[in-house]
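Q: How do we represent a protein-ligand complex in a form that can be generated token by token?
A: Start from the inputs.
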Amino acid sequence: MQAIDIIRQKTDDIEIKAAIVLGSGLSSIGDLLSDKQVFPYSELPGFPGFAQETKAVSGHGSDLLIGKLAGVPVAILTGREHYYEHGNAAAMRPALETVVALGAKTLLLTNSAGSLDESVRPGNLMMLRDHINYAGMNPLIGEPSDKRFVNMVDAYDPDLRKKAKQLALDLGFDLKDGVYLWYSGPSFETVAEINMAIRLGANSVGMSTAPEVIIARMLGLKVWACSGITNMGAGMANEEISHTQTKNVAAICAEKFEKLIPALVQTL
Ligand code: HPA
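Then emit the structure tokens for the protein with hypoxanthine bound:
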């Protein structure tokens, strides 16, 4: 049986408006759902870790949640699979195809990232205006149809960005946007790589999201993506960058996401 059939057995014909992917340390957003149904990825064919005992990357959840966020039917993917886990950039494709089959027209992506912009500090959020695929790997390699030739201009929906900026202001914080550079990881960047990223025009750096955006655009989803800034890029501050720090600071970012994302889904 396919993932969509397993989900449909419990959700009848519910049509979701949007799907939301939660990044490292952000899984608390899933607690905001009402009428929640939980589907562990391990039981959904094609999802990260299907039929496996192995745990998701620490700080990430591994459930698909279906329910209502601020009264709006949505799916939440509490964790993602990263390119650095196995070298497969298309790992999230079956999960994204499933949320499209459930009715999603919009994809909201969150992640944790390092800031290259001195004015956006740890604990702040930064929306993605565009990305640089520095990992150089494309999730559509091997896709046989002409659908693979995806237009990436305005991949990050300008209208959703504008709405989110205004909503953040209403909630009391400034929400900057920037260019996200996708670096494969899992090691963090060297100081030289951060200097290069700045010269290339990047404002943030992280290990996810860009492949999902490419897949989502092929599937016709509108995309909005936003980083929780957990640290300054390597060498930019007197702090040691680590996954523990990422998870700790992400919890501060989560409080902002918990207000912004419900407000944003209400506009869909
Ligand atoms: N680099 C890459 N990925 C990240 C970082 C970073 O500095 N912080 C959180 N995720």
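The longest helix spans residues 243-265. Residues 113 and 206 are 5 Å apart (CA to CA).
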